[in-house]
Design a protein that fits this description.
Blueprint (H helix, E strand, L loop, with lengths): L18 H6 L54 E6 L2 E5 L2 H9 L3 H26 L3 H11 L21 H15 L11 H18 L8 H11 L9 H14 L6 H13 L3 H10 L1 H4 L8 H15 L2 H14 L8 H8 L6 H15 L5 H13 L3 H12 L19 H13 L3 H13 L6 H14 L2 H26 L16 H6 L9 H14 L2 H13 L6 H13 L3 H14 L6 H9 L2 H4 L5 H20 L7 H17 L3 H14 L6 H9 L1 H5 L3 H27 L9 H20 L3 H14 L3 H4 L4 H7 L12
Antiparallel strand pairs: 1-2
Length: 804
């Protein structure tokens, strides 16, 4: 009879033996190997490391050629453990390395060992109860501890430990056996990531020892290793790398692989860099894995062939494989054509073939074609700079009736407008395809359509958020191109030149224009300057910030406080506090810019007590004056809060600043004024921070933790005292209105201030009234003028029944 095609190998000689000769042999024929004993070295390519659909990403390590004969003696290996950033500790031996690799604390390991010992004792007790006829009690213990019943036929996995020649082999086989004894607690139907890590740790450590006699490993052990290491899920990112090594070892041990194991092994071989060998093995496996549609692996076999041949560039074979599958199994998902479309779009000579396959995909899917399918096709065309094909695909997705735009120099009005292109750009930017969005802008320019400033700003912001050097460079180039466009517009407007927009920046493109890649760009807006300013501030680029500010002034754009705030924060970050203060007063007094809450947050952060670790008395005196001045200006300028975060952060920073300055009179005036103007209610967490002090919250030492605990007790005592007082009045903290609750928490804050100042309210009153006058809130906190409160309030009053 012919040889079993399941036992394939890469060697060319055949192993055919007739039945009569085979029966005359005394020894049983060994099973044929699925893989050769050794594989040639194959360097990695970009295509080899590209993940296939529905496959976990492989380990990107180069495969190494295994020597045919390994020495059985010990090999000197040094082990190291990373104990910090750039610091390593040398380990004594492999056992210490195994402990470090497990990542478990020694106390935890001891606890686990103790639990395992107790569980073993319980199992022995259950066996004794069964032996002496106490079955009911034994079943009760089994139910409590979830022990296996004696009838389940479970068998402990074990590798024979006799016959290993060297201490090295015996040690690692013993360690692997010790692990295998605990595998009965691993559910192979619901494998956990920790199970995979532990299994691979012990098996990989014993591989060299086992290589001397892999045939001694029982089939049950191979089955367990396969079920765990080939488990598919997010918790097994190295799945394909594990499978590749495991298949090689099982092949060397003479284990007959199932059809599904062979198929996954071919895929793992391809992903590990052996592309040619994997495709050759895939072709040879057609008789066993993909001969008839009745085969269990028929569909998976041909789908794998389409993906592998597409990635390797064998487009003809990939197309034949796809057609074979689609013709033989009509219910096959037509999306198998997407890898082939992506591969055809890579080459100029096959781009028309890619479009033809896309049309076939649309025809086969019909109404079942989803937006995600269009995104895959559009991304394939855009990534290879075939923007026109990508636009046509997007048009097909957006319109129910056919609209042909390919080869046309002028787009239809329904497509050739900023709004339609804006939808596409928004989708591309949201999906992270920034290069594709940039190519769309360049393509639209060739059709006489320029994107709006909003669309350009969105792309600039996305490039900056990407955090890559290339993205930052492109964002800066495009942003400054828009600024130059704005400056040219201003210059022409100043000359009163009648021009038509869009403007062509220069007749002969300069180096800057060539770098951007666009000849037409919209005028920069306030958002453009704001995006670049935020970028320069976060990166601490003071020179770039100054250059941007000069261009901003020349651009003649009406501004708000955002640009001013960015400049102030940049100066403060670069330790130019006086320059920041001068800039603030120049913008507010000379240019009439109205500051907002973020401005005063930046100003209070610029105080020396909030910037420096070591403060002198000179710093304290200077900041005491500035803090009251900042608070006065914060109250007088007309602005409102624009978010919950700033509404919580600004009052917190103000109170901490006065506390650090030990200006308790100013702190009391600020808390009462913010209650009226901001509807500020101190939280219990803030009360705890103020009671313990900033240093205690910043440095979580043992002493500071004790201080935090004592402060917490102090706040709790004050709350309990006030609760008793309210109960005596027939009220409760839980039943108070939001206004009354805010008032009560404000009283606790005032108690804390008096406690810190070590004075009574009457003793502090003269200083308090003086501070209120200097801070511009005398009519608010002392006279309580309703007209002044309503005029200066930064938030609308809280309505009855709403939360404060």
């Amino acid at each position: 009879m012919p040889p079993n095609p399941l036992s394939l190998e890469l060697r060319k000689q055949t192993g055919y033996i007739c039945q009569s000769c085979l029966s005359s042999l005394n020894t049983r024929a060994a099973p044929r190997r699925f893989l050769p004993a050794t594989l040639p070295f194959r360097p990695y390519t970009k295509q080899a490391t590209r993940p296939l659909p529905k496959a976990s990403p492989p380990i990107t390590t180069k495969p190494t050629k295994q020597p045919e004969d390994e020495e059985d003696g010990e090999v000197a290996v040094n082990y190291f453990d990373e104990v910090g950033a750039g610091r390593y500790r040398k380990l004594r031996d492999s056992e210490e390395f195994s402990k470090a690799l497990s990542g478990l604390d020694p106390d935890v390991e001891a606890m686990i060992a103790d639990l395992e010992h107790k569980l073993q004792d319980t199992a022995q007790l259950v066996k004794m109860l069964d032996k002496y006829g106490m079955k009911d009690k034994a079943d009760e213990l089994r139910q409590i501890y979830k022990l296996d019943t004696p009838s389940d036929g479970s068998q402990t996995l074990w590798i024979p430990d006799d016959g290993w020649r060297t201490p090295y082999q015996r040690k690692h086989v013993a360690q692997l056996n010790s692990f295998l004894r605990s595998t009965k607690y691993i559910n192979v139907d619901a494998v956990k990531p920790t199970d995979i890590k532990r299994t691979w740790k012990y098996y990989s450590a014993a591989r060299r020892a086992l290589s001397a006699a892999l045939d001694r490993v029982p089939a049950e052990v191979w089955e367990f290793l396969w079920k765990v290491l080939s488990w598919e899920g997010d918790g097994n990112p190295n799945r394909m790398s594990h499978i590749f090594i495991l298949v090689k070892d099982m092949n060397a041990a003479g284990v007959a692989l199932t059809a599904s194991q062979q198929l996954v092994g071919i895929e793992a071989m391809f992903l590990e860099g052996y592309q040619a060998e994997a495709i050759e093995l895939w072709k040879k496996s057609v008789s066993t894995l993909g001969s008839t549609p009745e085969d269990d692996t028929y569909r998976e076999y041909w789908e794998l062939g389409v993906r592998m041949c597409s990635l390797s560039g064998d487009l003809e074979r990939a197309e034949r494989a796809a057609n074979t599958l689609l013709n033989a199994v009509p219910e096959t998902d037509p999306r198998i054509l997407i890898p082939l479309i992506r591969a055809c779009a890579q080459k100029e000579e096959t781009i028309d073939k890619a479009w033809e396959l896309y049309q076939k995909l649309r025809e086969l899917l019909g109404e079942d074609m989803q937006i995600e399918d269009y995104d895959e096709v559009i991304g394939s065309f855009l990534s290879t700079n075939h923007t026109e094909y990508g636009l046509q695909s997007f048009v097909d997705m957006m319109f129910s009736s056919p609209v042909d735009i390919r080869g046309k120099t002028r787009l239809p009005s329904s497509v050739g407008n900023q709004y339609f292109i804006g939808k596409w750009l928004k989708r591309l930017i949201g999906a992270g395809d920034l290069e594709g969005a940039y190519n769309v802008l360049k393509y639209m320019e060739t059709r006489g359509i320029m994107g709006s400033a909003i669309q350009f700003n969105g792309l600039i912001g996305a490039w900056i958020r990407s955090g890559t050097a290339d993205g930052l460079e492109k964002a800066e180039e495009l942003g400054w191109a828009m600024i130059r466009s704005r400056l040219m517009f201003v210059e022409l407007r100043q000359r009163q030149a009648a021009v038509e927009w869009p403007l062509k920046l220069r007749v002969q493109a300069s180096d800057d224009d060539k770098a951007v890649g666009l000849r037409f760009v919209p005028k920069a807006t306030l958002e453009t300057f704001s995006i670049l300013a935020e970028n320069y501030r976060s990166r601490g680029l003071q020179d770039k910030m100054d250059e941007l500010w000069i261009a901003f002034n020349d651009a003649e754009i009406s501004t708000d406080a955002f640009m001013m705030n960015q400049m102030i924060e940049t100066y403060v970050q670069n330790a130019k506090f006086k320059t920041a203060l001068e800039f603030y007063y120049s913008m507010t007094q000379k240019h009439g810019i109205v500051p907002n809450a973020h401005t005063f947050l930046a100003l209070f952060n610029s105080l020396a007590v909030n910037r420096l670790i070591v403060k002198t008395e000179e710093h304290i005196e200077e900041d005491s004056v500035l803090s009251r001045r900042f608070f006065k200006e914060m109250v007088e300028y007309p602005w409102v809060f624009d978010g919950d975060w700033i509404h919580a952060s600004l009052p917190r920073l103000v109170l901490h600043s006065f506390l650090k300055l030990r200006d308790y009179a100013g702190m009391l005036a600020a808390s009462r004024a913010m209650r009226e103007l901001f509807w500020f209610v101190p939280t219990e967490a803030l009360l705890l921070e103020l009671a313990a002090g900033t240093k205690a919250t910043r440095n979580p030492s043992k002493r500071n933790m004790e201080l935090m605990i004592n402060s917490s007790k102090k706040i709790e005592v004050w709350l309990q005292q006030r609760h008793k007082e309210l109960q005596a009045e027939g009220r409760s903290l839980e039943n108070l209105t939001p206004e009354d609750r805010a008032h009560e928490l404000g009283l606790v804050l005032e108690k804390l201030i008096f406690f810190k100042a070590t004075v009574t309210e009457d003793q502090l009153r003269p200083l308090y009234e003086k501070a209120a006058r200097e801070m511009g809130v005398y009519d608010i906190v002392v006279e309580k003028d309703p007209e002044a409160i309503n005029r200066l309030r930064k938030l609308p009053p809280v309505k009855e029944g709403s939360a404060v």
